[in-house]
Each structure stands twice: as structure tokens, then as C-alpha cells.
User: Fold these one by one.
Assistant:
Number 1:
Amino acid sequence: MKLSKLVYISFLFLTAGTLTVNAQDKKTTEKKTDKKTEQKPEEKKDDKAVTEEIEVVRPYKPILAEAVKLRRSPDLNDVKSYKARFNYALTDRKLMLNSDIDKLYAQDVAAEKQAELINNYVKGGLGSANTIFGEAYINMDRDEALQVGGFFRHFSQSGKLEGQKLSQQQASVFGRSIGDQAVLSGRINYERKGFNFYGFDENNPLRNLDPAKQAFNFIEAEGEVVNKYTEDPDALSYAAKINGYIWGDQLSAKENSVVINGYLNKRISSFNLGLAASTEFGNTKDQLTNVKNNLLRLNPYIRLEANGIKINAGINYVQEFGTVSAGHIFPAVTADFTLIPDYLQIFGELKGDVNRTSMKELTDENPFLNSNIAIRNSIEKLSFSAGIKGTGGPGFGYKVRVYRKEITDMPLFVNNFNDPTRFDVIYDFGNAKVLGLEGELSVQVSDQLKWTGKLNLEDYKPASETYSWFKPQLRINSNLLYSVTDKIGFNAAVSIQDASNAKLYTSAPASPYVIPNSAIETTTNVKGYVDLGIGATYKINNRFSAFAKANNLLNTKYSRYLYYEVIGVNVFGGISYSF
């Protein structure tokens, strides 16, 4: 503030001085002297003196800047206010009083574009070992309450041994309808397997120079009805299913079966009272055999479900009728206790049953069977199992189970005496005991990486046989899936099996077979194996993708059954189209 005041005063004096100079005109005149007057020499200097005459042009009028006129502080006594004047124009208008609720009109929403469904595909590929592969899956509708579809698959290969060929075809048509009260489903399957009895003995290479051909045909139909789940505590639930099939080989063996299952369950608060029943009609024929092994099962039970506890207690009554007639009563008890929800559960089971033996199941396990196979049901007298299961977090699941079984007339495979490339079925007469450990593990690190593994460890104590033939003690299976990107993925699988034992006859055994005769038997070892396979997929676009697969990468010459060496390393690949 002081600096501003000093500037203003300086500016004032400077302006006043300038105006003063500009307001005066200076005129210089010389003083006149009389020539006649004598002057003394010292007076000559004064004669030359100059005088100034000032002529006033205008009077001085100082001017102050506007900023100088400001007061130091405002005048607080100045209370005069300013009032603006407004002009109004009023319009006469009628007041409308409408207390009714206006009607709301629904606005049309733009139709949402349905997502394009790509749930159908066809595949085709070729490769080494004369591999031909084809597969197709078709689903006819997007309606979740009505599904109709079909499936087809062909796979064929051939190896280096004489007659080492395999050809398999599968076809299936299925449907499901979800109604207001029940769910209906059904399917029709057809399967054909064609192969040769190519069994090769290195010690006797000239024994099987012209392998015989064999083929299995299987037709199956199934229908099921199940009531929809309801939360009504007094609800009555039910289900019924019927399954029937016809099976036959290229020679003279034939088999048919009809199985009818059903159950009723009445829920009363935390308890369930129910009855499960089933009937199996089976008939197996060959040139020299004709066996009817039918079963009737009745399983009344009571079930408790409350506070993480599930207990099912009942009995299993089984009646055999047909060629053999016998009745059996077994316990049927299961328990499940949840210690830590979703993380840890303890379970146990005590049961018994009669297992119906069929040519379909036997040939699924070992297709190189002889003709006129003996058919006899096996009885699982008492089976106990217990274990734990649960999850260890997202993407991690586990299950560990120990079990003990006591089986009467357990079926076993042995090489035929006259033709060792074919197998007969004998039964371990008496009570064979099996002690086992089963473990399963699943780890999903992310959407790109998943690993699963399964372990089976079993200890067999046969009833009358020396060993449980072709029953390995250790089996391990593992699968790994890894997606590098959205387009590239890899998978790997490994199968490990321990060694097993096989029985060979030095002379023809008794027919029909009753008990083993160690004097005419020898035991040989079937080596274990490790089978490693890998695969890769590449997604070209939303429609097309390419795949490749390699089996038995270690090129291991192993045999699951004696004399039947598997095909060595083989690679095939192809194209897949989705629509």
C-alpha cells in the first residue's frame, strides 16, 4: 500500500513539473547601453548579462488520477439500496385437476438375438497302422425340455502280426422330454466289433498261421420315466426303467436280456421309506449250452437325512430262478457323514448281491473267448467299504476308499488247451477274498490346466485256484489337459498295469471243469506295461479344427491277455467340423 502511494505522489510531481515547463516560453534579450557613455574596463563583463522574460500562456491547473480519489475505507453510513423494477404479464388459464392414474402401456422390447448353437460336429482322420477314424454327433433342437439326437463312431486299425486287425462301429439314437410331472428318456444303441483270433506264440510261431475271424453284434433299447423333484416334505417319488438287448457272435453264441427296475419313495420329514425292485431275465445259448439265469431283487429300506448325516438301512433279497433256483438275503447299509461341508465327508457301505454273468460283459472284458462258455452267477456274500471324499478348494477334489469283498464262484479266464489263442471261463469254486484300495484325485489349476488320476491296488486270495488269473494287483490311469491358448490345446494320458499270472494246461482238463489239477497246470507271467499317449488340437475358427493323436509312444510290446500283443506306436490325425 505504501509503495502504491509513493508511485502516485511521484507521478503527480512529475506531471506538475512537465506542465510548468510547457506553460512558459523563455525569451532571451540583451541589455542596451549608451554608446556615449564611457565604460570602465571592469564593467564590460556586466554589460553582456542576459535577462529572461517569462510570458504566461495559460494558468496551471493540476489534475489528479481517479485512483487517488479513493477513500481509505468505505463509508458505512451509505445504506441506500437499489430496487429493480419488473414488469409482469399474467395469462388467464384454466386449472386442470386430474387425479386419475394414467394407463401404462407396455413397450415392445426388441427381440434378443439368439446365440448361435454349435453343438453338432463331424470328425474324420487317417494315420499309421492303417487307422481310419470317423465320428459324428447331432442334436436336433435347442429346446431344453425336448432333446433328440444321434451319435456314430467308426474306428479301425491293423498291426504287423498276421490277422492283427480291429474294426468297431457304434451308433446311437436318444431322446428326452421334460414334462410338468415326469421326465421321459430313451435310447437305442447298436454296436459291432470285428477282429481275428491273431494270438501269436513266439515259442511256436507256426501254430496260428490263418487266424479265424470273429464279430459281435449288439442291439440295445432302453426307456425310463422319473418324477420331477419337489420340495414337498410329504412327496411321493417314483422311477421305472426297462432295458433289453440282443447279443450274438459270428459263430453260434446268442444272448438276450430284459431288465426291469423301479422304486417308490415316501418322504416323511427327515425320513424316507422306500422299496426298490428289479427283475432280470437272461438267456445264453450256444451249440452245447443253454442257460437261463434270472434274478428277482427286493430292497426295502429306511433313510435318514438330517444335519449332514445320511443313513440308509435295509435288506437286499435276491431270488435266482431258471437253470438254478436259490434265495439269498444280504444287508444293505450305507452311511455318509459330513464333517466339514464341501471339504470332508466320511462314508461307509455294507452290502451283498448276486452278480449275473453274461456273455456281453465277459466279451467286453476279453473278446477272445472260445465257444460254449460256461455261464454261472457269482455271489458277493459280504462286501465292506469305507473312505473319505471331498474338495480342498476350487478345482481340487479327492476320494479314497478301502474295501474288502468275499466272492463265491468268481469268473476267471484261462487259455484253452486245444487252441491257446482262445480263452475259456472257469470259476474259482469257494470264497475268494479281495482286499483293495482305490484313490481318485482331480486338480484343475485354471481353465487351461486340468489333471485327473486314479489308482487301484488289489490283493487277491483265491479260494481254490493258485492265482486269480489275469488279475493285476496295481492299475494307474492319469489324464492331463492343457490349453496353451484359445486355439491350441494338448492332452496326455498314461496307463500303468502291474504284471499278472496266466495258467496253461499240459493236458486236457476235466470237462465240465470242477476243481483245479496242479499236475496238469503250469503258470506263466504276463508282464506289466506302461502305455503313454499324447494328443493335440488346433482351432482354426469357430467351425473347423484339426487334431492329432499318438498311442503307445514307448512302442511297448505288451499283452493284456497272453499271446495277444497290442499294436505298437501309431499316430493319426484329421479335421473336425462343428455346426
Number 2:
Amino acid sequence: MLTKLVFKNVGKSMQDYTVYFFTLVFGVSIFYMFNSIYAQQEIMVVTEILTDSMVALRKILSVISVFVAVILGFLIVYANSFFIRRRKKEMGIYMTLGMSKGKISAIFVLETFLMGLLALIAGLIIGVFGSQFMSVFTAKIFEADMTAYKFIFSPDAAVKSILYFAIIFLTVIIFNTIAVSKYKLIDLIYGGRKNESLKIRSTKLSVLVFLVSIVFLGTAYALVLKNGIININHTFLWSIILGTVGTLLFFFSLSGILTKLVQSNKKLYYKNLTMFVTRQLTSKINTNFISISVVSIVLLLVIGIFSTGYSMKNILSADLRETAPYDVSFYGSNEEENHETIYESLPLSIKNIDAISHEYSIYRGDLRYKDFPVDYSSLSFNIGKRVLDFVMFSDYQMFLEMQGKEKNDLPGNEYFIIASGDVYQHIAQQFLDKNVTISLGDKTLQPNGEVQNIKLSNSDSGITFVVNDAFFENLHKSPERVLNMICKTGDGSKELQEKLNQYSISEDYQEKGFWYYSSREEIYATSIAMKAIISFLAIYLGIVFMVACAAILAIQQLAQAADNKERYALLRKLGAEKKMLDRALFVQILCYFLLPLMLGIAHSIVGLTAVNDVMMAFERVNVMDSVLIPALFIIVIYGVYFGLTYIGCKHILRKDHY
């Protein structure tokens, strides 16, 4: 008897609560797909460094998956609370017919188990096939060869998905059992008639609070754009506080503003069911303004981290290799007692590789950046007290030769300026635009030519001035000494990396004549790994937060539809046509979904502008160019939940009343 009732209820629930079941399936599939990334390594040809990176990514995703499971768990419990509330009257009938609370709890336990099992099976199937497409994206991120492609199933990801979601469903079962045990018959019979309370506020107060919210949000936007997102200081904290409070006040006052605006247009207000829709919408916003504000703020995070993570894949390998123009750069000291050069300290295995090498020193004087009329406000740190760095013209000529660039001449009374990185190039350009002179000894040097975008070493970043070798006596060597090497062939580069790997684990490495080295291949592999980790984490969390936001809005609308069945039935009795009721329901749900999304988009435009400035400065990646794909994905997910919510609400309202 109970089993038959359970199967019948689950069949009915699939129709009424498609959003709930869709969220379960989608959650399982996403959970499996991201936890199966490590298994995709079997079909990719990657280096040892990237293999280690995939191991690290797997560990990070395992930790993040616990956080994701908690979010999905809260979401499922939240959805289930609506599920229970929707069926209070049904439980009341069961009790009236003499069924004990134990049997009622057993029904809900079996229903939850069956629905969870179906969602788990469907989610795993979708996740397994979805992970095959995910492997293409993974290979693109890691820039790996996929010629050995084959169908991959990850038992580890499947077991982890089953375990985590089993714990979630067990929690839901416990929650349901406790909830049923506390209900009284009178509450169950009349539970469906209890409506949400409406907070009554005057229009003047609503307008005042709305204006304050606009001021807070505008101030927060201005602070973010001016301060940026890197400087975690008081200004940044104030922008967060003002933005959060402004969002809360915006939705707190919105119901009164919307009502007044619609009422001011009499033709609109009295047209069809606009009056009813306005009251329904404003009542829901008024009651749930905190949750809507949270959704709007989380949508900011979703758009921000999703767009940033997706844009990371656009960092091309060519760009990464340009950041390391030399096969290897060794960094040592000019203050060694034996005055031995770095090259002389290297083992024969590395010296014998056919390569071009050049060793140089950075020179410094007493000149500091604060001594020159240049605006440094674009930098996130105070550069004013730093001394200027110089290299000799002969060293500069070797940099050009090693990087295959055309050499040029430098008159004795002029200087070149080298800058790597867009931020530093902006500063360097000011020296040229303002014709800033530099005094060395009894000579005053004028700027020459354009800003030179070359790197002195693989780890070089900043501004360096090139002067003739004759000024050697006016400067002194810095503690740092650098040796660059470029192999003449690709095979030589591979051999050099192998020799470096062998040397770094040998006993002789302990007696090395340098501090450390930075090889192109290691920088390249590390950059790829960092790109992959940031991309996967951002997209993973972005999807989960997106689903959570859309599901919360959907569940709230489904709850309102269940509460308002009698109202819609009354409208139908008063002569309202089904099309008119469906249109009213559509507009109400659409507005409820769009309002937090629109404010979230406004937040994200400001946030992405600040993020874009950082990305352009450090990675030369324009986040704005990568917004389209994440935006389409967000619209699709949001649209699916909107569609399922509309269908679910319409089914609930039509089921018994119209």
C-alpha cells in the first residue's frame, strides 16, 4: 500500500516540482564532470610539470567539492522545505484517515530515496557523457594533444558523487522526519491558507530609502573604479559595505516604488490584471528582499568569476612564451668572494650545449623616481623611493641580438628606456612625452626613440634605462647578476631542460654559483597550470552559484503559486480568461527573475571594468572580449529555470482551480 502510494506521489511530484528534480540532476552531473578531470589525463599527452599540475588541480577540486556539496545541500534542503509545505494539506488528510506520523514519515523517506536515486542515475549518465565534451575544453586549457582520445569513465568521481549526494539525501530524510513529527493536524489542514505578511511602508519613506540606496551604490561604484580590486584597503572595504547595504536598501524600497510608478499610469494600472500582478510582485519582493539582495550580489560574483575564469583560456601559449624570451635565466650575486661568473660555475653538461649566452649586471645610482615629474598613480604601490635601474648599451645590444631584434645606435647624450608590462610602459612613455632628462656625472641625457618592450631576463618586470658604457664610472653595480641562455635549436632547448632537471637534483647543485634559475619551459608549464586551475575553479563555482540563485528564485515563485491558488481561482470565477491569467503569471515570474539579474549586471559591469584593468596590466587579456560566452551560458541557465518555474506554477494553479 505504502509503496504504491509512494510511486504515485513521485509521479505527481515530477510534474509539480520539475525545478527540484532538474536541480538535483544538474548538480550531480556538474559534480561528476569536474571531479573526473584528472581521469581525462589518460587521453592527453602532457609534460611532467603539467601532470603534477593536474594532480594539484584534482586535490584543489576535491576540497572545493566539499564546499560545493554544502551549497547544493543547503539548496536541496531549502527546496525540500517548500516541498513539505506544499503537501501539508495532503499530510493532514493522511492523519485524518488514521495514518500515524511514523507511516507518513516512511512515505516521505521512500519518496526522497526514490527521487534521489532517479536524480543520481540521470545525473551520472549526463555527467559521464558531458565529461567527454569537458575533456576537449580541458585539453584546450592545458594545450595538450588529444590524438589518443577514448571514452573515459571515472570510478573515483562516480563514487565521490554517490557518497556526497547520499549524505545530502540522508540529511533531507532526517529533516523531513523531524518536520513531520512536529506538525499538528490543525496546522496541516489549514497550512495552505497562511499567506506571507506584507510590511506596509509609506511612499515617501520608500522614495527616500530608494534614493539613499542609489547614492550608496553610486559611491560604491566610484570607489571600486578609482581604487581597483587589488588594493585591499579601507577604501575597498567601504565599497563592499556601501554596495551591500545599497543593494539591501534598493530591494527594501523597491516594492513601494514599483507600486507608485504603476499606479501613476492609470491606463496601465487598470489594464487587464496589472493591478493584481503588481500587488503579487511587490508583496513577494517586500517579504523576500533579503534573499533577493543576496541573489543579486551572488549574481555579481557569478558573472565576475565566470567571465574572468573563461577569459583565462584566451592566454595563448605564444603570449606565455613571450614572457620568457630565454631558454633559461640564472640569477646570482655580484658580491661573491671568488668573483666567479655564473657561467663559469655551471657544470660541463650545461656548458657544452650549443647555445648563445650573455651575462650582465644591473647598475644603480642615486636617482629616484620621485625626482622626476611623472605620474605614478596607475601603479598599485609607491615607486617614488625606488632608485632607477640602468644597463649598459653593450648589454642592451646583446638583448636585441638574442631576441632576434634589430640593433640600433645610441648617441652619448641620450638614453633608451625599456619597460615590460603595460602598466610600466605607461609610466615609461611619460618620460618620453615629457622629455624628461637624466643627469649622470656632468652629462644631461635626453630620451631617445620609443619605449623598448623587451625583457632583460625571464623574470624581468619593470623599467630599465639604457645608457652608454662610458657612464659605468658614474654608477655602481647592484647585488644582482644575471646570465641568459638561448639554445640554437629546439632539440637543444629540450636537452638543456633535461640537463637542468638532472643538475637540480644532483649533489653538485648544493654548491651552485647562483641563487636560482628560471627556465622557459617551467614558466610556460606553470603558467598553463595556473591558467587551468583558475579557469576550472571559476567556472565550477560560477555554475554552482548560478544554479543556486536561479533555483532559489524558482522555489520562491513556486511557493507563491501554491499559496495563491485560491486567488487565481477567484479571478477565474470573476471572468478572467486562461490566457489573461497565464500572461499575468508570466509577467510576474519574469519581473521577479529580471530584477535581481538587472542589478547584478549593473554591479558586474563595474566589477569587470576593475578586473579588466588588472588583467590587461598583468596578463594582457581583455576580460570584456570573453563576456559573450559566459553571458550566453548564464542566460541559458537562467532561462531554463525561468521556463521550468513558469510551467510548474501554471501546473500548480491549473491543477485544481483553473
Number 3:
Amino acid sequence: MSPFEKIEVIFLYKPYEINISINEISSLKLILKNCSLEEAFSTKKYESENLKLFVLTPKQYQEKHTQIKTFLRHGENTKHVGFLIIENLNESKQNRKKNIQENNKAINVFNELSAPYTKNHFMQELKNSIYSLFIYASSDYLSSFSILRDIESNALKEISQAMTSKSFLAGDFLNLVLKQSMKISGADSGFIIIKKGLFDDKNDIKESNKLSQIKNQKFILKYKINLSQKITLKKEIFDPKKSKITKLLCEEMIGISWHEESNIIVSKNKKIKSTSSPLSEIDFDPKHYKIKSYCAFPIRLPSTEVDGFIILLNKKISEDLILDKKSDIDNYVTHFTAHDLNLLESLANQSGIALEHAKLIHDLKQVFESFTAASIIAIESRDPSTKGHSERVATLTVALADAINQTPTGLYAALQFSKIQIEEIRYASLLHDFGKIGVREHILQKEKKLFPFELEKIQSRFSTIQDKMYINILESYLNSLMLKKTNPTEEEIAKIKFEVKKVSEKLENYWKIILDVNEPALLSVETFEKISEIAGSQIIIGENSVPLLTPHEINLLSIKKGSLSQQERIEIESHVTHSYNFLVQIPWSKELKDLPEIVYGHHERLDGSGYPRKLKSKEIPVQAKMMAITDIYDALVARDRPYKKAIPYERALNILESEVKLGKLDAALFKIFVEAKVGELTLEASMDDRPSSVA
């Protein structure tokens, strides 16, 4: 099938009167014209379906050689123009020019006819030239068609690869679709517009009626490409209530196209409506630019909801053309073909699938973000004293990852975290303490070595001992008085008071020591000896010996550091295993599959002294090593907690440095942490974050 509709034969010289029928020449429409070269060249309007054959003499060709070359270079498609050169029968033989043989091949000269020649001979050469031009142009068309199909297939390949890529991003994909749409159609400008708030949490338009669907719809510009001149969209186009084109796309949900010659908007080969001002919602310099053709397609989700649209302006006859002025648009801009429209509609549909894909990913991410936020609330409700800790650790660990990405030298110079890996680090940091929901609440919130009820029990015991001892002494003296049958002397009463006071003072002193030792501070040797003294002390009441402390109380008060006993510490440390056992149940994507292991390793230490698995350096993920630093740092500088006081920034770094020197924390990571001043990011939040209440 040929794309050409007609062949114009333009006689600049005609030796015979001729009348050629259509059937004699070809199935194409044949148009014979008599005019001057200036008249033929003055019309530069591009008509891709037309061919032109010029009949002229060697003298005309030579005289107009420069003008012909300029026309072929700047006027119509070179492959659509040919020349038949015939000698002028009226010229003398010596005046006939025959010296253009060498130039013919480069400038589309198909035949030369030397005088003398008959009318039949002339007619045969004319027919041969017409056929030659047709074959020449058709061959070029087929070659161009093949190149175009290669461009189209490559575009479709790139788009399909982008859709199936692991690193698929809706924004990047839409930008690719716009670029490829312009490339395969030859458009001079293009825009992709999507629904405002498409990926916002509150966007939930589900009305079944199309008019109600677009009632409150607005759009925003996502991407634009201008190849020739500055072109912008007016704000009206983003509101279907103000833009006819936008409303049409949303209501009809099918593509539309427009061309200057027809001056009507068509969709699926049907007339929609006339317009004398195409795309009035677009701004450009009217002195140098105009819209001669455009097309637009809705981006529909599989649910049929219109979530955006593509607009392409001015289809150029060649991709590398620059439309500097209006005349260029007249000469080099044509209409979008039916093939263009079918292909562009397919790309718009692909964009809809991509948006649906991105929307699903966005919704899933929002669900997970909500789950993560709810998990943090659950953690903090169990342990209010650590409010804000998870978010601050996430901020610090992500900042440390960014700092590592910017580090050009050292052990981690080659380490680069991708966007999804940084997301993995963020989620792991936010959920690293989730297992605390599996730890008993009273242990999580234990402020001192003894629980309040345990301290009250000792206080009650001391009070009971005092009372019993006082009663016992009084009973012994009463018995003595009854035997003597005399009143007690002042010395005897003083002795009773002294013994009671002696025991009371001893118990009061012991009580003060117990209160002091009960604090979760570091237990000194001197204090330990005092506890040992109390533990070894017994009060003799009559024939009975009463211990002041039980073995359990002695064990708790002998804790060297902090407020937790060995068993309680084991239970607290079990939160890491609880976190892992919970997180490993979630079907993480391949990109996030290491998240449970990162959480599992954040309390491990390089020398194997960490918990719960006693891993050593090479067995610990680098992300867990990073979180080990940020977790300890935040615990140190965070506001006062029941079991410790907040530590100044520099002091916290010194403590971390000592842990590095002991071989527990990674020296290279700590160096990056310090040099990038990562810790300063959360200092203010650490001090200002106060829980509203502590259960």
C-alpha cells in the first residue's frame, strides 16, 4: 500500500500539448500544471501524501540550480520531488546544454531527453519519470517506515522493561512514557498531567457517576518537554470545570485529536465538537508559535477512573527540526496519523497500569507506615519512659547511612546504600524494640532494684521487728517486776528505753542504706560491704533470731549496676528475640528481606559480648552495627529515665569511644558518626520529648 495520494506534474517547459488519462499513468490522482519555477517554489507547505515531478530544460535547470537546491533543502521532502530534463526543441543544436550529467544523481534527475524527439517519445519518458519518482519515494517511505517501526519497538521495549523493573518508580516511568510518546509521534511539545493528591492518604473518590467523579477533581502538571519554544499550561486546564478539553477527556475517557485544516476535535473518527480556538488553556508567544495539531489521551486506571492525561502538540515531519517561527510550523508540522493515535493510546493505557501499580504500592506503603506507627505506640505504651526513642534511632541510623554514602575514603568508601536499602534501615530502626510488647510491663518500667511493694515489705518488717522487740523487752521487765513485787527503778526504765532506741537507730540506719543502695547507680565496694553487714545481721527477739533481709532481697540489692537482676535482664534482652520472631513472620519483599536480621543483630557486639546470639564482627550485618551505635547514643543523651540520668553530648561520645576501644563497636562507623555530626540531629528532640504520663 502506498501512502501517496497524488502526483503533480509541473511543466516549466512543455514541448507538446498533452492530455494524459489517470489510467494511463497510475492509480494515483494525476495533476498537470503549467507555471514558473518561482510559482512552484513559492508554496512551501508540506504535503506528505503528494509527489512532484518538474519538467524543465537544461538551461532552466542550470539557471535555477541554486534555487532548486535551496528548495530541496528547506522546502518539501527531497524524496518526494523529481526532475525530467528535456532539451528545448526551439533552440539550435549548438546552444543545447548537455553538461549536467555529473550533477543529476545528487538532485533527483530521473531522465534526460535529447532533441529531436517525438510526442510519443516524450510521453513515454514522462511516464517513466513518473513511475521512477513513485518507486523512489515509495522505497524511501518503506525505509523510513522500517526505521519508525524500530523506534516504536524500542520505545515499547523500554517501557515494558521499566514496568517490570525492580526499581520501578511511577514518576520516572511517566517521564519515560512522555519522552517515547514524543519520539515516536514527532511531537514538538508534550505534557503529562495527573490527578492532584493521587498518592495522598485522603484521596478516595469512588462515586459511580462520571459527572460526580469529576465534580471536585483537579489535576497537576507532572512532566513537560518543550523542544522548540517555551510553552506553559494555564491553571484552567487543571480544573475540569474550567477546561473543555480536560472535561471532555474525563467524561468521554477516550483520546482526541485536532488539526488546523479540519478545525474539529475528533475521537475514534467521530466529530466531537468544533472549535476556533484550540487549547486556549496553553500559553505561548503568538508572534513566533502556534498550535497546528495536537492530540490528548486520558490515563485510565484498570478501574476506568481517569487519573491523568497526556497532551502532545505539533507533529513535526522530522524529529530534529526546531520550530523557530510560525512559518516553520506552517512548513514542517502535520497532523497526527491514525497509526500515531493508536500507538499513543496504547502508551496512555500503559501509563494507567503504571499509575495503578504505583498507587497499589503507595497504599501498601501507607498501610505499613500505619502499622509501624501503631507498633511504636504499642511499644511506648508499654515503656513510656522511652517515648520518641524509635523515631530518633531511625533518624540517626538513616543519617549515618547517608553519611556513609558520602564517605570517599576508609573501610566503607565502597559501600553505597540504595534508596530501598535506606528505607529498610529506617523500618528496621523504627521496629527494633517491637519485641518489648512480649516483656512483662513491670520489668520494662522497673525504676529501682526493688519494686515498691518489695521495699514496703522490708519497711514493714523493720517496723514489726521494732514493735516485737519493744514488746519482748517490756514483757521481760514486767515478769521481773512481778517476781520482785516492787516498782522499777529509774535506771531500769532508762535501760529499757536505751535498748529499744538502740535497735530503732540500728534499723533506721539500715533503712537509709537500703534506700541508697536501691538506686540503680553503680554499686561501690563500701556500699556492698554495708549490704553484706545488713544481710548478716539478725535481731534476737526472745528465743528467736529474725533476719533483716531475705535471700531474694539481698540478691537484688547486690546488683552492681542498673536496676535489673540477672533473670530480669535476661527477660529484657529477650525483646530482641521477640522482635525477630515477630518480624520474620511478615512476608517481606526481596528488597526488605534482611530487615528481621538487622533488628536481630542490633544488640550484638563485635567481640561477641552482645546478645542474644553472641555474634562476632563478621557475623553482624553492617546495618545492625550502625544501629548499635545510634541506639546506645540515644539511650545516653535522651532525657532522664527512671534508671539513669541524661548525659551531655560530648560525654556520650566519650562513652561510645570507650566501647570502640574495648572492641565492642565498629571504629570506622563511629568515626563517620562523629565526623558527620550525626548525633546533633536529635539532641533537641531528645531533651524536649516528654511523656504525658508514666503508668
